[in-house]
Every structure is written in C-alpha cells, then in structure tokens.
Amino acid sequence: MRMKYNLDTKLLFQIGDPLDHATAAYIHNAMYELAHVNAINQYAIVKKGELPKFIECCKYLGVVGFDIATPHKTDIIQYLDECDEFSREFQSVNHVKIREGKLIGIGLDGAGMAISLEQAGAKFDGRALILGAGAVTGPIAAEICKKGTKEMVILNRTVAKAESIAEILRRHFDIPVISDTMTTENIQKYAENMDIVVNCTSLGIASGTDDYSDEDLAFIEKLPAHCTVADVVYNPVTKLQKAAMARGLKVVGGMPMMFNQERALMKFHFDIDLPEGYEIEGEEAMRTAVTLNHFWRKQHGYTNAND
Fold first, then answer.
1. Biggest distance spanned by C-alpha atoms of the chain
2. Is 301 left (phi over 0), alpha (psi -120 to 50) or beta?
3. Which of these, 50, 91, 166, 254, is most buried using a 10 Å CB contact count?
4. In the chain, domain spans
C-alpha cells in the first residue's frame, strides 16, 4: 500500500487494548489511499486509565484524530468538548477528531448499519426487531428510528439492559418501544409482521460456544417475505444469515456495515465522500488485513481456537 510521508501528512491512531486481533487501521489506510487523502492511521495500545496522557500527546504532536476500540468507548466521553446526543446517551463513542485543540466525538456503528439497510432496500416505515442489548444496539436502534420506524422491539437475555435502551429511545421518538427477554419463544412471537430484524448478538455464529441450534433460528420461517435480516457479525457468514438467505429474504451482513461506517468516518474526519467502488477496495483490504493478522498471531504464539 502506497503512503505519502511529508510535512503535510495527517496522523491518526486506532487505539485500544488489546489490539492483537485488530484490522481497522489497515482498512482506514486503504480508504485514505482510495480517496487520495494524505494521512496515515497507526495502531497504539492505550490501556484503561491512560486516555489523559494519550490525549495530551495527540495535541502536542498535532494528531488530527483517533478511532477507538475497547475499553475506551465510554471512558472517552468525559474528555470530549463536543459529542452528538445519542453517542453521549448510549455511552458509546468510537471516533474522535481534534480541531483547534477541541475533541469532537461521535459513534458511527448505527450509521454504518442504517446505510447498509437502506442500500438493501429495507422497509423502514414498519416494525423493527433488535436481538441483543450490547454496545452497538442503542446507536443502531436510534438510526433505524430516525428513518421512520413505527415500532421497535428489543430483546435481550437480561431484560433490564434492553429496557434502558428502550427508555432512551422513547424519550426521543414518539413510537412504541418494547423491551422483553430474549427467549426462543419470544423471538418467534415478535418475528411475525417484522420488516427489519437486526442481530446484535452472537446468535447464529457458525462456530464457538455461542452457536445456536436450528430451533433457535426457527423464527426465520415466521418473518414476512419482504423482511430484511441484518447481522453485525461480519466473519464468518453466520447461521442466521444462511437461514435468512435460504428463505429468500434480503440479508445484510456485518461487512457492509463496517464498510459503510468507513464511508461515514471519512466524512467525519475529512469531510469528503468516498468514490464509487469503495466497498470492493475495502473488502480486498479486509482480506489482506485478516491474512496478515493471522500470520502475525501465529508468529507470536497465539493459538486459541478462533485463530
């Protein structure tokens, strides 16, 4: 990958701890090159509690921004000068730009999914079902509500987490927002008449301890033929996605969400629009990054079952 290195090169970081599985910086750099942006994104391990020191260094070095992974998505908010309302309410910021010494933060997980659903032709003016209540659920649910959804259902194993998200959504949108326990029976009950289903859990992963049975995925048969099924998991293709495809439903995987987040990210950091075909470039960068990451982990003795 060709990079420009001169006095005008803008420096950004991908921060978190750990970063041994990270591929984001490689994809960011591919997008910079595609858009002819003279910038580079580097990994930096920043441990919990070290954000003040890192921010001070960024200002001193003239860093223009940074992108955030675990464990800083909530911790960063207290140091921001500006932050959009929903990112602050859902306590999830994953991108920061620095302008004239001010830190401006935003969460773009929701934007990436909303753009992907729109591209797939999802019907927004109906009912949406969200499975799980993790960090991405609130931002994704809010973006779907902004698109005009008439009713939202959030299911989670711990219903209190689903209710806390539902409560925020009710304050901002004049629509019914239902929270309930995520059981096989409830998923099947709510699946009928849904226009959009978004999986924000490990539901349907093809391998690992969180795999779900065919019975758990039986709700796919109850979905209307026009329903769009989306999944935040991008690798591998999940059992959920396969089951929805077998039904002939429109399916959005986690890969388009990630690439469309890059589209929103480039607008946020540099105020530019990615050219057509950025998804192809992003997918190629992703494959390369995964291959290089896998090789690096083997070289450094990482041998867990998911490698």
1. 60
2. left
3. 166
4. 10-107+276-299, 110-254
